Fold each of these.
Amino acid sequence: MQQHLETTSFFRTIGDAFVSFRSVAFHDDVGTLHRWMNEAHVYPFWHLNVPLESYEQHLQRMLSDSHQQLWIGSVDSNEISYFESYWVKGDVVENVYEAHPYDQGVHLLIGPPDALGRGHIYPLLFTMLKQQFRVVETEKIIAEPDIRNEKMIHVFEKCGFQPVKEVELPDKKALLMFCRRDTFERRWNEWNIMNV
């Protein structure tokens, strides 16, 4: 299966925000990502508040995994987020529902505490989803936030995801959510109208 985004960077202007993504580069980003994984709003859900050496090994494994891509997301040139876009096929989550071969998934976080609560997550997530849906065979994108992470569940719902069911994954009890193409396109258009 081809890489689903087939690019190392992309960008979009949404309202007043210039949103961009670039591929994670190990040497450039491992220190920043390790710091973000140790932030109080991140580690309860990501479980990666580990020593730097352990995180380096984890990130190298993630970067060598061909079923996913890792991204640094920026708003107005400020690097504030980490995203993982992935094929459901080949991921542990494909075992908890009847997956279509071109289903994709997404994980994300806002890293710096001072970037929280500013609404940046919406243009970032909308931009990532828009890019993922460029794969014409993809009809839905999934998310599986920790069932305790009410803020993230709300963000996904606002961007077009709908709850499906609670699922048990190796590292968490999660809420499986689907974002279907038609629902996303409607939310995308509404968001752009509201933010012109």
Amino acid sequence: MASPRILVVDDEADLRELLEITLVRMGLDVDSADSLAAARAHLAQNQYALVLTDMRLPDGSGIELVGEVAGACKNTPIAVITAFGSAENAVAALKAGAFDYVSKPLALEQLRLLVHSALRLDGVAGMSAKPAATPGRAASRLTGDSPAMQALRAQIARLARSMAPVAISGESGSGKELAARAIHACSARADQPFIAVNCGAIPDNLMEAEFFGYRKGAFTGAIEDRDGFFQAAHGGTLMLDEVADLPLAMQVKLLRAIQERCVRKLGAIAEEPVDVRIVSATHKNLAKCVEDGSFRQDLYYRLNVIELALPALRERREDIGLLADAILMRLATAGNAAVLAPSALQALCGHAFPGNVRELENILERALAFAEDGVIQVADLALKAAKSPASMSPDANPIPSQPHAIAGGAACPPRDDGIPSCLPDYLSGIERDIIRRALVQTRYNRTQAAELLGISFRQLRYQMQKLDISEPE
């Protein structure tokens, strides 16, 4: 089998020679170019497992080549060589689609780590202990068929091919760690460690030791050498959860570790290289934290190369049924399994969910304990200030507050305090009213009405029979 072929683009002959020797010793074939024009000629004639280019070339910028390779050769990772301390160029290259970067003067160990990561990504035989998970399978951990979730999974599949840092934003409980794990599982690092760190849960005086490790005797109580989070995540992904809670002193040290790809343990003299991909997450607005001075601007730009925003649960209500089924299946134990009654699902779809998916899990776990006969009813959910789905839409007609007719022609009049005297009948009246409006809006097309209500056709048919809703003659 032919060796993987690498294209090196640099106008410095000495550096090109160093790169060629290093790569050849790794068992790779190497082509070299001293300009953009020469690089384009090579790319037109050959396929490469990796392109490595300098940022400054005599006839243009390496950023131009990054854009061309990222656009025309989507399966070819391209990495850039940046000048020492030129963080802006590195970030610009990553935003343009570069797989990774390495700084001058070249540290050969970092270069080898970069090449191995790129070749694993490209599927070169022998470069990975086991194949990375397929994007579809890994990202499917994020349950939901809504347009927002489909777009999110597609975005994760794309950005997983890069080494660029990812900043995940979203409300508390929206699944930021799950998204980070999906990014890791879709990447070439899937067989390497995934380390999640809650930055707000580490005492300030222990932060440096926890992140970078320490040598025996570095401080009182350091009875043996210990690795930190960076060393534990070597070769894999390090997730910095609630990164906005890091104190400013630690932000400086973290910035250096990310830029230089090296860390120094407490009590050690020499730095050691680390190969980690950084994924950060927070429910706070990092840009606002930069404005008020609680978060360093240079660290913000280093972490926020690729943004990934997670939708709140109220923005994808059509996924609530699928999520509820998945959660109940996970919570089910011998003799303790239940399903949602249609009215309970309706009530969940109308709830605001300020706590997002985590709140849904808590509600269902509590309801499961109170459910009788294996069916969770509305009362078991104990929802507060629930709203109907129709009331959440600004275009929807308000649900009438007067007594509702129920099947058989009876009524459920409210008491003087506004609380209905018969909750099940009252909710049935609300449900009947919503289904009728959906049917009228879709001209009694049951398939479209079911889609509008976020339920299956079979559920809609069952509810129409139960609530004695018939189509007009």
Amino acid sequence: MRSGKGNAHAHSLFISDLHLCRSRPVITAQFLAFLQYQASQAESLYILGDFFEYWAGDDDLDQHLPIIEALRILADNGTSIFFMHGNRDFLIGDRFAQATRITLLADPTLIELYGRRILLSHGDALCTDDVAYQAFRQQVRTPAWQHAFLQQPLASRKAQIEALRKRSEQEKSGKQESIMDVNEDAVDTLIRQFQYPQVLIHGHTHRPALHQLTVDGHQVQRWVLGDWYDQGSCLRADHSGFTNQPL
């Protein structure tokens, strides 16, 4: 048994917002090294969305074979991998999960880990001030929309996604920064819904930080995961608490 698994040094890792794609090979190389040298020592790895820059459907697996193979090797060697959809890769489905040996998680999901109740989310559903985005999110998360979209040829799907991404970037340039951050009332509502977990972990905003919250007299830590554009970002959880893991 490798160090860190099944003993007092047991730990789990949380990442999000890697935005892996062919145009950013440095990030892909960093992630593959992370799997080999750090994630391989963890009991579990939680990927909380926007793992890929976009995902057009599970019939595009061949474009990401090195990543898929590396995840499968990690899982086969004993690290449990959990994946939550983000706003860029919500079309990841069962074929990808089977190929990589990952477990898909609903957003949000409550887990118990190292004696703590931990609530996990990608984070985009908490950005309720962005009304236009929330309407779009609700539309594309319906089974009917996804079924119709996935019936189209792969090339057509990719072209539509590229057009959506370009339009989204243009729209973001005209939005206030506060609109694209989480809404505090939405955070509090989610925490109440899940009966005041000790910890909330999410990504999406690319604003890594620890926020100490008090909700109805309950103390809650809100950890925001960072993106991987300039440097990797990883949160480690163990029996002693949470720390940012250097990469």
